[in-house]
Amino acid sequence: MSGGPALAIIGTPGDRRVTMFADACARYGLRPPGVVPWTSVLRGEEIRLEPGTLVRIDSPGEDPEADALLRGPGEPSRVGGGARWHASLTVGTARVREAVRRTPGAVLLADPDEIAVMFDKRLCHARLAAAGVPVPPALPGPVEGYSCLRRRLDEAGWGRVFVKPAHGSSASGVIALHAAGSRVRAVTSVELSDGGLYNSLRVRSYDREAELAVIVDRLARDGLHVERWFPKAGVGGLTFDLRVVVVDGVPTHAVVRAGRAPMTNLHLGGVRGDLDAVRDRLGAPGWARVLDACARAAACFPGSPAVGVDVMVGTDWRSVAVAEVNAFGDLLPGLTGLPGSGAEELDTYGAQVRAVLAGWRGPGAAAGPRVRALRAGRGAEAGREAEAEAGPRRAVRTARGARGAEAGA
Which residue range(s) make up the domain with 319? Predict the structure, then answer.
C-alpha cells in the first residue's frame, strides 16, 4: 500500500526524468508524485498543490512547447535565445516558490535562486572561485563579440580557450578555440547554415576567421563566458572528464565521459569510459581530490538536494578543475552508486528519494542528523571524523569540517 509524504514534480509529463523519479518513489512505497507541467507554469496558470506536498523542480526537458515558451518560437534545434530562456525559467521557478509558500505545510525541494546561478556560467564560476573551488581562470567582465574576444585574449596572453554561452547547456554553442595571430581553429557542435546557428550532433571545425566571427558575434548577444583551456588527462587514447552527482552533500554517482573531441558529451559522440581505470590511475589520494572538489562545489548550493558536477583531471593526473555545476545534472540512466557512498544499489533518483525520506529539506528546514550536527557547530569535529573514514563520505565531511572551522573563526 502506497503512503508517505505527498510529492509533486515540476516537469514534463512522460519525460524520462519524471518517470524515473516516479519509479524511485514507487520502490520506496510512496504514492506516485503529481506532475505540474512546465508549460502550465510558464503560461502563468494557477499552480495547485495539496497541503504538505514536497515539491521537486526538474528540467523542462526537450519539450518543444516548453522550449517555445522559454525562449520564444522558432526551430528547436537553433542555438541562441539563452538570455530569454534563463529569464523565463527564473520567472517560472519564482512562481513555483510562491505557490509553495501559500500552500500549508508544502516544502520546496529546491532553491530557485541557486538554479538561476547554476544556469548562468559567469555567476556560477564566480561563486565557485570565491569559495576556493578549483576552476579554470576566466576572462572578467563582458565579452561583447569576436573582436572583443580576440583583444581580451591578447591582453591575457591566452591562445587556447573555451567560449561558452552564458546560459547554455548540453554543450550547445560551446567553442574550443585555438587562436594564434590570424590563424584560428574552432571546434564546436554549432552548424552555421543559411545565416543561422543550429545545434548539430556532429562536432565540426572552423578555420576561417570570418565564419568564426559570425558565430561568436551571434552567441555574444546572450552573453559569453570564456575560460582558459584546461588540458585534460586521457585513458585509452581518449581525453575525459567526469560527471559526478552529489546528493545531500555526498558524491554518490560518477560517470567517465571520454572522446576525441574537446567536448565529451555523450550525445556528441562521447562514450562512457572506464571508471575503475580512472580511479586506479589516480590512486586513492587523487580520487579523493576529485570527490572533494565535487563536494565543495555542491556545498556552494546548499538549497539544492542534488547537483551534477562536471570535473576535469589534468594531464599531470594531480590537478583538478570544476568545469560546471548542473542544476538538472542527475540523468544517468542505469548507473548505481559509488562504493562507500551509501547509494551502491540506488540510481540517482533513488538516492534523492532516500535523502528526502531521511529528512532533507534544504538549509532552512529540518534535515538529517549529519547536517543537523554541522548546523550545531560540529564542523571541526566532522572534519576530524573524516580522517578516519574512507570513500565519498570522507571527501564531503572533510570539506564540511573545514567550512565549519572557518565559520567559527
Answer: 232-408
Host H or E run for residue 41: helix 38-42
What is the side-by-side order of every strand in the sheet holding 7-11?
34-37, 7-11, 54-57, 107-108
- Same domain? For 244 and 349 the reply is yes
Whether residue 263 sits in one domain with residue 214 = no
User: Of the residues 228, 247, 275, which one is the last residue of a structural domain?
Assistant: 228
For the whole model, what pTM was predicted? 0.89
Spatial contact of 259 and 271, defined as CB atoms under 8 Å apart: yes
User: DSSP for 169-236?
Assistant: -TTTT-EEEEEETTEEEEEEEEEEETTEEEEEEEEEEE--HHHHHHHHHHHHTT-EEEEE--PBPEET
Q: Does residue 367 surpass a pLDDT of 50? A: no
Whether 209 is in a domain gets the answer: yes
Residue 318 confidence (pLDDT): 97
> Which element (helix H / strand E) includes 307?
strand 306-313
Query: In one letter, which amino acid is 389?
Result: E
